[in-house]
Design a protein that fits this description.
261 residues, three-stranded parallel β-sheet, alpha/beta, 8 helices
Length: 261
């Protein structure tokens, strides 16, 4: 991806225009698509996701936000990106910093294809089980690693102010610190248990059952899982058939115009 492409994405986001709206969709009319963009601000939505917090995103019934954790991974992330592109669906990827550094091309592809790229620490420890200072350092190293992978330098404050705790293992002190810094913490409303070995069909039936019961919401997957990559095309087709709509979440503000080196 060239310098001008990423600069344009960030300029559009700063101007209040969704970057995803500028990425052309070449799929057929039957693609699931992305229904709308939802711009978020830490002042009004500091923490979201009912599995961890009392509040979640202001979604209508049958609206879904797709999120993927732990990547990028060379075997699975491209398959997931290909599926999302085929269906013109935008998602949010919470990257582990060391994986972003190792696979910068995939991190940059996520940005280029209109997805939101956010943070999931540097090495994926459970932050409530380590000293507070070490936990803060792990979060900050994750911020800097992902931004360095994307833009060639560490940036303060981080570009996309979305963060998800590994294993949802937060603490009051860390939540307070992230809120003070204007970082929105994502939990989830439901997930597919894709960290448990199961067939793609088993995973599909489980997540569809949970989506139906919750009438949508923030859904957590992992783009490091082969079963998820195999299941995703059928899931998006089922969502289309069931009348569900995809919402793309975007931070209200971005630090500055940047470019990939």
């Amino acid at each position: 991806m060239g310098i001008r492409a990423v600069t344009l994405v960030l300029v559009l986001m700063i101007a209040g225009t969704s970057a995803s709206a500028q990425v052309p969709c070449t799929a057929g009319a039957d693609a699931l698509g992305t229904e709308r963009m939802l711009f978020l601000d830490a002042a009004t939505t500091p923490q979201v996701g009912r599995k961890s917090f009392q509040q979640t995103l202001p979604l209508a019934p049958k609206e879904i936000v797709l999120t993927f954790d732990d990547g990028p991974r060379t075997i699975t992330t491209p398959k997931i990106l290909d599926t999302l592109k085929t269906e013109c669906v935008r998602a949010t990827f919470f990257l582990v910093g060391q994986n972003a550094i190792a696979h910068q091309d995939l991190a940059r592809r996520e940005i280029a294809e209109g997805h939101t790229v956010a943070y999931h620490t540097f090495s994926h420890p459970l932050l409530n089980r380590i000293p507070l200072a070490a936990a803060k350092a792990e979060i900050d190293r994750g911020f800097s690693s992902v931004d360095t992978a994307l833009y060639g330098k560490e940036i303060e404050p981080p570009v996309t102010r979305f963060f998800r705790f590994p294993g949802f293992a937060s603490s009051a002190a860390l939540l307070d610190d992230l809120q003070r810094r204007g970082i929105i913490v994502f939990g989830a409303d439901l997930w597919a248990d894709d960290w448990i070995p199961q067939s793609p069909n088993q995973q599909l039936q489980l997540v569809l059952q949970r989506i139906k019961a919750a009438s949508g919401g923030i859904v957590l997957f992992h783009d490091t899982k082969l079963q998820t990559a195999a299941m995703l095309p059928r899931l998006l087709r089922a969502l289309k058939g069931g009348g569900y709509r995809i919402v793309h979440v975007i931070p209200r503000s971005v630090t500055s115009t940047l470019s990939v080196p």
